[in-house]
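User: I'm putting together notes for a lab meeting next week and I want to include a structural view of one of the chains we've been expressing. I don't have a solved structure, so I'd like a prediction I can at least talk through. The sequence is below, exactly as it appears in our construct file.
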Amino acid sequence: MRIRFITKNPLQLKYLALILASIMLPLLIIGGCLYYLIFQIMAEQLAIPESIAYNLIPVVEKINFLLIIGMPPIVSLLFIWGVILSHRLIGPLARLQKDLKKISDGDYSIRLKVRKNDDLRFLVDAINKIIDKLERR
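Assistant: Thanks for the context. Below is the predicted structure for the 137-residue chain, given as structure tokens.
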């Protein structure tokens, strides 16, 4: 069982960067839309500035509180989930790459192995059949 979840594999780092961008972009858009909505309401009702400030400043403070306190745990949990998912993909691929290098060097006794419920099982089975045929020749 592999212990390191983040490897130096460029493919995993690429997917983690995509996951992080997928988390941060919607957060920035939502935060921007909320502030735009608040300041749009303020701009439409400039005739009564005291009532606007009285009603909207608590709303801005609540939004700030939610963004500052609520978003870091959500982003952290989503990023951890992304690390786990990328690990499930990259781990077997790294092992396959290492074993295929040994096979390409001429060691046909090696058989590729993955976990029982791994998504790459179909690929490993097909490659193992090819290795069996090569070994018989």
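A couple of points you could mention at the meeting. Residues 10-107 form one domain. The CA atoms of residues 111 and 128 lie 6 Å apart.

User: Perfect, that's what I needed.
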